[in-house]
Queue: 4 jobs
Job 1
Amino acid sequence: MQSALLGRSGPGRDAPAAPEQDARGWISALGAVSADSQRVQVSVQGAGDATVVVHALRVRVVGSSAPPAWDAYSMGVGCGGGITPKSFGVALDAARPQITPQNGQRDFPYKASERDPEVFTILARAGARDVRWYMELEWSSGNRHGTLRIDDNGEPFRTSGMAGRPQYDYPLGGSNKWVPAPKENG
């Protein structure tokens, strides 16, 4: 899995890529935006003996425009974790983006408890647009129910397409420098 960003000036030819857990802050510090795809992980856990049912997870687009004319930077990152997440994807460029199960995963609903939490990984992709978006998680527990907004600390997520932009890679185990991305044979 690679993380990518579009940046006005980029990280600099000798500046190292951020580790995966620091990527959001690193992207923000550069005044950049997530490019091509953005991975969001949502954890749901009940309290005490209560079971929580997650009925749906929906995407809400609040704005869409042409991607900024910035350079694209991709960095190699790793994966891991103790709980196997449920995988979902969403094409943000679609007229009505919908979260769909991936890798043979079943669709909603799901249930979670204090001892048996659920983790959902959503891979949101933008190919040709710069999209500002958030998610809504519809839940219930006993006679209580609600909708929880999932966003980027009170602001919409922002994911931008990077096709046609100059691209630079920071390969794992490589030269520890940003290098021009190989041209794709088309």
Job 2
Amino acid sequence: MSEVQEAICWSGPATVIVFVIGSGDTPLPRETFHLEGMAPDDFLPFPLQSAPEPLDRLGVVSYDLTFDDTALDLREYTRAVLRRLCADGRAVAWAAYEGSFHFDHLLTPDIAEQVYGYCVSGFEPVVEWDGDALRGDDWKRRIAEVRAAVDRLTTDAA
């Protein structure tokens, strides 16, 4: 089992946590997350309130997608979810470990190793399942590029 797979299964079931900016603040329906022949056993959407402007206008939503079967190919599922979240307009989405989200540290170098996937509308999603790669400088550079995409989105929304 990979380091990421172990981490997302720390509490027993596997929980893929994804965030999206730019798709509004109304969560997508549960059926949206039936992808790759898989459907989460538990689905918890969280519109994130008190976002700083202009993130608030774009909408920030988190989804906890929990699977009882920890042997599923959650890497491919994560890729499909990120692709889906960025499919309907200009958005940035990412998958990260629980506890990694804070508006003051949104896709910053200090939390880069806690982000294991991302997607920017118009591009294919990237998912990294290797812990050493997540701790590397290349990954920090990539996460900085994702942060720059968020900054462009917020500038355009202003």
Job 3
Amino acid sequence: MKKLIYISLAIILVSCNIISNDSRFGVVYQDSKTAQISDDKSNYWLAKQNTLQENFISTQKFYKEEGSLILDYKYPHLDEEYNPVFSSFNSFIEKTYLRTEKSVQQVLHNNDLSCDPIFKDAERKRRNIDYKIYTKNDQFLSVLLYKTNYYDEEHHNSFMFKGLNYDLKTGMFITYSDLFENNSDKFLLFKLNQELQARIGGQDSFNDCWEFTKDKFEVSKNNFVVNSEHIKFYFDDCAVCPTYSGNYFLEIPLEELSSILKTGKSESSYFKS
């Protein structure tokens, strides 16, 4: 298979402190320091993962009760003593999620937190955030933030996701345009819908999903994570599939995207041929 991705030279897949063991989200949720990771074939690689994680990344917690609302977050924190450029990552997390008043108001008053009509008049009671690392090496960090809103009625919750891709050398966040050629949207949208149709035809849980439209793609195009073989585009409740289906991502092998990936045309490229 053609070697597409520069970061695959040192890719490590680390599973970080996620709240449940639910394959719907495409991840295995377990503690990276205490649990055996099913994909690892030897203790050497498990030890290697733990050592690299301890070098510069740790799990931080934030808990706040604000009236009837509880904020309970776990999030990655990068060691700025290890590399000062990491301040941009930590600052993003702080500004987006940890400023209590802003976070509370967003949860309480953002009508877009769920598109499911059963939540229209429901009171939001709790917001949880946790994360999983998909890729980490000396240049590239790919993280999925997994966000859950809990409501006043039992078993009522909604899900949102945020993919963060970060250049560990420059301290810059990596976007869709950094990885894909110009004018690649049409082809990638076609590939996503091709994958969706295959899922609809082969998995009952996808039967009620609908086409990935251009406007939905525009919203989700920067909401992706990357591992050594695939790119996964995450979407929130009701964007592509109804809430009850429990489906929140589509993945495409990198090999199938070779024609639209930026492959080594500059030193800053993350994909090399």
Job 4
Amino acid sequence: MQPEVLSGLIGFGGALVGGASSFGGVWLTLSHQRKQAREARLLEIGQEAADKALNELITLGEFLESVRGEVAAMRTDESAEYLDTVFGHMERVQRAVARIPDRELRTRMRDLLSVMRKFRAAGVRHLFAVSWLAELADELTELLSAYIRSDPLPPLSERTESKRQRAIQHELAQRRRFE
């Protein structure tokens, strides 16, 4: 083979390798930028959703403080008007939390909202139910606040854990009663 052809082939091969590596570098850069943009967007969505849920919980807590005296003597098996407002706030919290990308937070929030719905386990009077709901709203507020600050999620308080157990026991007792 003539030296000119050999030198041309080597130059052509070098150009192909250079072009391929340049293309690969651009592809990797774009892929990395796309991943970073997606993560930033998820973080932004999560922060907005957490802010919305937190505002709902704060409003719910303030509402529950105003309710305490009105329903103190009512039995929990009686329907009380305040529950419509409470469940409305809880539904908006649940919808907002569904958009948060942190799976652990979503699961814990969903579990605590479920315990809130079992407010009848608190006792026979709505006074106890209002206290139950307010304490769980505070626990949810603490969870969301930690998430917004990027702190580790705090463990459940002993009071909340005991509420979970009481809700389970109450639900079992209700099932036995209807069987």
